[in-house]
Amino acid sequence: VGLLLELARIFSKKGSPVTLRFLAFAGTESGLEGSITYFLAHDIEPKNIVAALEFNRVGAFEKILIGHDIDAANLEELMLDKEELEKERQKGQFVIRANWVRTINLGDVNIIDRINNLLKDPCGLAESPDMLLEKAKSVAKSLDIKAETSYYPCVGDYYSFLYKKIPTIIICGEGNMLAGTPYDTIENIKESSLSKAAALAYQLILELESEKK
């Protein structure tokens, strides 16, 4: 959240040729409740969005994982074979369809239509666009930040954005074994990690802006 607030402060003074939205969601690990609620409350056209960038676990890290790249290895250093890759590309973000089914109002008179529409939905993008993955890697390299692409690098709301066919990447800090433990506290945040993540976010936004001028 601190990273988002600092970026918002900088761009509020600097200005931008595109509309920037800084979002922080709760309920990520309890069914992506925050991001799903956001989409239910807003009428969003994917064609009007340049990119969605998620930053996760950037308070302390040894390297950056950029996802979601189905051609890359996962956290266990395993890769999908050709047949598995094809299935993944066809499924999209099928893994979170059940999260959307939970939003159906059982008292809705059009409940059958809603269920049928969900079942017909191809579940969005199977992976992050190559352009975004490569641009993020390039910016990280220019800033001397160790980074590589990854298959589902960490849990995040990027699932929801890809499901909605929005070009999205997640930038996830790797190497911090404290994440999700009782020791994951503000005292263990590293200023150097936050500074690197902020620089990466800032430069990446500038480059994406320049393409839309």
TrEMBL record:
Gene3D superfamilies for the chain: Zn peptidases
Per the database entry, which stretches of residues form a coiled coil? Answer: none
Q: Where is the Peptidase M28 domain?
A: 1-65
**One Pfam family per UniProt:** Peptidase_M28
What is the official name of this protein in its record?
A: Peptidase M28 domain-containing protein
Organism listed in the record: marine sediment metagenome
